[in-house]
Specification:
By secondary structure, the protein is of the alpha+beta class. It folds into 2 domains: 3-50, no CATH class; 56-84, no CATH class. It has 2 helices and 5 strands; from the N terminus they run E-H-E-E-E-E-H. The strands form 2 sheets. It has a 3-stranded mixed β-sheet, with helices on one face. A two-stranded antiparallel ribbon has the order 4-5. Strand 2 (32-40) and strand 3 (43-50) form a beta hairpin. The longest helix has 14 residues, at 13-26.
C-alpha cells in the first residue's frame, strides 16, 4: 500500500490513481513507498519516495583517473596509488 499525501487542496481517487500509475510507469523497477502531491494552481508537483535505496557506484579521482574500483589496474598503477601523498584537512 502506498501512502499518499495531498497538499494545498483535494483530489479525487481517480486522479490520484493516475498519478500513482504514472509513477509506476516512470520508475518500473522501483517500489513506491509514498507519494506527495502538491497542488499549485493548475499544476501539481509529484514527489515519490521508494522502499529501497538506489544502488550507486562510488567514483573517485585517483592519480588523474576517474575510477570506481582499482581491481582492473596493473601492478604499476596500484603502486602509484599506494605511494601517493595523501593530504589531510586542517
Amino acid at each position: 500500500m502506498v501512502d499518499i499525501m495531498v497538499t494545498n487542496g483535494e483530489l479525487d481517487k481517480k486522479e490520484l490513481d493516475s498519478y500513482l500509475a504514472y509513477g509506476h510507469q516512470t520508475y518500473p523497477h522501483r517500489e513506491i513507498k509514498s507519494m506527495e502531491v502538491t497542488i499549485d494552481g493548475d499544476y501539481v508537483d509529484l514527489k515519490y519516495t521508494f522502499k529501497e535505496a538506489m544502488p550507486f557506484q562510488r567514483i573517485r579521482r585517483i592519480t588523474g583517473y576517474l575510477v570506481g574500483t582499482t581491481d582492473r589496474w596493473n601492478d604499476a598503477k596500484r603502486a602509484e596509488e599506494r605511494d601517493r601523498v595523501k593530504h589531510s584537512v586542517v
